[in-house]
Amino acid sequence: CNNSDTGGDSGSAADEKITLGFSQVGAESGWRTANTTSIKDSAAKAGIDLKFDDAQGKQENQITAIRNFIQQKVDVIAFSPKVETGFETVLKEAKDAGIPVILTDRAVDTPDKTLYKTFLGSDFVKEGKASGDWLVNEMKGATADVNIVELQGTTGSAPANDRKKGFADAIAANPKLKIIASQTGNFERAGGKAVMEQFLKANPKIDVLFAHNDDMGLGALEAITAAGKVPGKDIKIITIDAVKDGMQALADGKFNFIAECSPLLGPQLMELVKKVKKGESVPARIETQETTFTQEQAKAALPTRQY
Ligand code: AHR
């Protein structure tokens, strides 16, 4: 039976496959690798045709990728914006072309909220605050100043801006907690190591390192050990993400605390892609559920950690 009153749409299921253009920031960290795997695996499982572009850490590459997706007339565009500013023009182009956009993992800072359908990702301010709250509690008996160094993520990125703010707000509870140096390590291991080396040279007394992600903390470990100090003891280390290598360092007593940031956004993203393609309404903000880990909690969680 040929059901011809469906507007002539007699295509097979394969013809009706949704096409998703996804622009990834790069491959700067273990988190990012796990995020890319989650997106690719979930697209395959959901039967979505994924056009994946790796911008190799460059905003201009992301803008070019999004323009290419518009030209290819994909059904939906999703991307993890490297930084918060500078995407308005290309977002307007997508809107004018009638292609819905989903922000994934990181937000953009634009007054026009109609440029994207929703933002799926973590609350980075909360992650910074959880890190600071842990330190406030840990140092509650401190009689001398506690010298903190901070390794920031990519300059201008939502996680770097928000984690810095959340942490600073939390440690304001105790004036003895002082950030004596703060610089970007670009979310990379090599960056974390190089900047920590400088911090150690310039500051004879460092009590705490707050790194905006595990990878920078892991790089910093090498610098701390090379300087003859014991990570986790001489210098307490707080990081964010909770990828396997970070959790291992925490379980081994080299890190002291991790605030989780989940990279497993793929399944939720594919659900959203299907909904916006159908024209269904979606919440403007979908926040990822996450937790925190102490050394003991990391030991317990490690054996079943997926990434
Ligand atoms: O945007 C999420 C952050 O980007 C992760 O915390 C960090 O590891 C990554 O590079």
Explain this structure:
With 307 residues, the protein is α/β, with parallel strands linked by helices. It contains 10 helices and 12 strands. It has helices at residues 30-46, 59-71, 88-96, 124-138, 158-171, 189-202, 214-226, 244-251, 266-278, 295-301; strands at residues 19-24, 49-54, 76-79, 101-104, 118-121, 146-152, 177-184, 208-211, 236-241, 257-260, 285-287, 292-293. The chain has a 6-stranded parallel beta sheet with strand order 2-1-3-4-5-11, sandwiched between helices. Helix 6 packs across helix 7 (214-226). It is elongated, with a radius of gyration of 22 Å. Residues 28-29, 31-32, 105-106, 159, 187, 213, 240-241, 261 line the site of alpha-L-arabinofuranose. Residues 28-29, 31-32, 105-106, 159, 187, 213, 240-241, 261 line the site of alpha-L-arabinofuranose (AHR).
Layout of strands and helices, then pairs:
Blueprint: E1 19-24, H1 30-46, E2 49-54, H2 59-71, E3 76-79, H3 88-96, E4 101-104, E5 118-121, H4 124-138, E6 146-152, H5 158-171, E7 177-184, H6 189-202, E8 208-211, H7 214-226, E9 236-241, H8 244-251, E10 257-260, H9 266-278, E11 285-287, E12 292-293, H10 295-301
The structure holds alpha-L-arabinofuranose.
Residues 28-29, 31-32, 105-106, 159, 187, 213, 240-241, 261 line the site of alpha-L-arabinofuranose.
